[in-house]
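From the pipeline queue, job 12 of 40. The input is one protein chain; the requested action is below.

Action: predict structure.
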Amino acid sequence: MPWLMYAGMNDEDLGAVYDYLRTVTPVKNRVERFTPHSKTTASN
């Protein structure tokens, strides 16, 4: 996350980002829960 880039934003900058994000059409994307594989060792 580029925290340093966002740290210097003023209220006007943040408002512009907010306004832009409100214009972007949402994308329907199913997010599946991560389930790790069973533990294996390098020798298997």
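Job complete. The chain has two helices and no strands.
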